[in-house]
Amino acid sequence: MAPTSHPDAAESLPLTRWYRLAARDLPWRRPRFHDDFGAWGTLVSEFMLQQTPVNRVIPHLEAWLDRWPTPTAMAAATPAEVVQQWANLGYPRRALWLHRAAVEIAQRHDGVVPRDVDALLQLSGIGDYTARAVAVFAYGDRHPVVDTNTRRVLARAVLGQAQPGPPSRRDLALMDSLLPTDVTEAAVFNAAAMELGATVCTARSPRCEMCPLVGACAWVAAGRPDTGDTRRRQAAFEGSDRQARGAVLRMLRTAAPDPVLIDSVLPDWPDPLQRDRAIDSLIADGLAEADGEMLSLPR
User: Fold this and answer.
1) Each residue of 18-44: pLDDT tens digit?
2) Residue ranges in the chain assigned as alpha helix (H)
């Protein structure tokens, strides 16, 4: 799978053929669901899928789109409603970013998710991956779409590395060099590379014997060497400030719309200073509001 100058469909066939046979049955890949999904559904799903497993996202996504089927509908919601609906998806700042993006879409784009990548990048919480994912998977345009899974596939199959290095613009250039020229096939190739990284070319236990690229993989050809791992490690959740933040938010969601006394928040938490840090950081991030001695979800 060496880089070429925009291969045609035949050169990308092993990966796209595997994808069409082996791709997971996810709701947004079903024709009936996808027809009603649109760019807004794609945008919401991409926000939710950041650092959250697919099986946790699916029920939340369907409930979210039932409640707010358009950006304009969500723009009319309060931040408190959005944070409460986010529930246990984790990294709740994403909920506020998505709400801000919905407001921006309603105000700047007449309630229609923009198609242009540069316009998408101007929305809150949207980076290179999400902007291109919307343009490709919702609007059918041809762009390289590179997430963590794709970067791992590129690192192994093309560069012969066990793990990818830090994200860079070079990832987009490399993926672009591999995309078929046909727009439809390019979209499938993007999805196939992500799917391969998520299900076969995994970080810890790659199943090379099942990989459609095994015969062309530079890492396999080199004997699967340990070339080091510079990926940033995530701190343990148990006992972390993230765990404390989550516990405070759960209490506020349960009490909503009523505020609670700050002194009554997690009174038995083993580390009072950590509890205070969690409250302060939630307020700083706009996920909670303090009014005197009372604490609540943002209004």
Assistant:
1) 999 999 998 888 775 666 789 999 999
2) 13-22, 31-49, 54-67, 71-75, 79-86, 93-108, 117-121, 128-133, 148-157, 169-178, 183-199, 218-221, 241-255, 272-284
Q: How far, in Å, CA of 103 to CA of 115, rounded?
A: 17
Task: Please name the amino acid found at residue 297.
Answer: L
Q: Which domains does the chain have, with CATH numbers?
A: 13-221 (1.10.340.30), 241-296 (1.10.10)
Min mean pLDDT across 11-15, 32-36, 94-98, 150-154 is at: 32-36
Q: Per-residue pLDDT tens for 212-262?
A: 999 999 999 999 999 877 766 666 778 888 888 888 888 888 888 888 888
| Token pair recorded at residue 48 | 């939710």
Q: What is the pLDDT of residues 125-172, one digit of tens each?
A: 999 999 999 999 999 999 999 999 999 999 999 999 999 988 888 999
46 catalytic per annotation = yes
**CA distances in angstroms from 106 to 32, 70, 76, 83, 110, listed in the order given:** 26, 9, 9, 19, 5
Residues in the chain: 299
Query: What does the CA dihedral 91, 92, 95, 98 come to, rounded to 10 degrees?
Result: -40
CA dist 80 and 157 (Å) reads 45
DSSP strand pairing (289-291 vs 294-296)? antiparallel
Q: Which amino acid is at 96?
A: L
Cα-to-chain-centroid distance, residue 245: 21
| Nearest of 233, 163, 237 to residue 203 by alpha carbon | 163
Q: Which helix H or strand E contains 261, and what residues bound it?
A: strand 260-261
Q: Which of 11, 46, 81, 195 is catalytic?
A: 46
pTM more than 0.85: no
**CA atoms within 13 A of residue 36's CA, in its CB half-sphere:** 8
